[in-house]
Automatic annotation (TrEMBL):
Database matches in Gene3D superfamilies: 3.90.1150.30
Domain of life: Bacteria
A UniProt-annotated Pfam family: YjbR
Protein name: DNA-binding protein (MmcQ/YjbR family)
InterPro entries referenced in this protein's UniProt entry, alphabetically: YjbR (IPR007351), YjbR-like_sf (IPR038056), YjbR/MT2646/Rv2570-like (IPR058532)
Coiled coil: none
Length: 123
């Protein structure tokens, strides 16, 4: 279940965004020029306390990552990601829609900023 049915379309609306499915991880990944800026997954029962909760994983400025986690119980350290630079947001939670959109925008921008200048110019 998701409280954010618009999320897939929003992520795919980013310039150059593509979606693929990583079979080994069972993740829907959102990529820009081959670099992941978001992923949606539902961890299995072996991954307590996340078990069965669908989440989106987003890159985040490390200072803001901590602040989001402190303010919103449905924002946790990135699942199977660098916990300093990635957050997970439970999609059955109560994070305000505008904040989740801002977090998606930030994730995309942080990943695009690391692409070569010539690639960024084509976006």
């Amino acid at each position: 279940m998701t409280n954010y049915p618009w999320l897939d379309g929003y992520l795919l609306s980013k310039p150059g965004a593509e979606r693929d499915f990583k079979v080994e991880w069972q993740w829907e990944r959102y990529l820009v020029r081959g670099k992941m800026f978001a992923a949606v997954c539902t961890p299995g029962p072996e991954h307590k306390p996340h078990a069965g909760r669908t989440m989106v994983i987003l890159k985040c400025d490390p200072r803001l990552a901590e602040a989001f986690r402190a303010e919103y119980p449905d924002v946790v350290p990135g699942f199977y990601s660098d916990k300093r630079n990635w957050n997970s947001v439970y999609l059955d939670g109560t994070v305000p829609e505008t904040l989740l959109q801002d977090m998606c925008d930030m994730s995309y921008s942080l990943v695009v900023a690391k692409l070569p200048k010539k690639v960024r110019e084509t976006l």
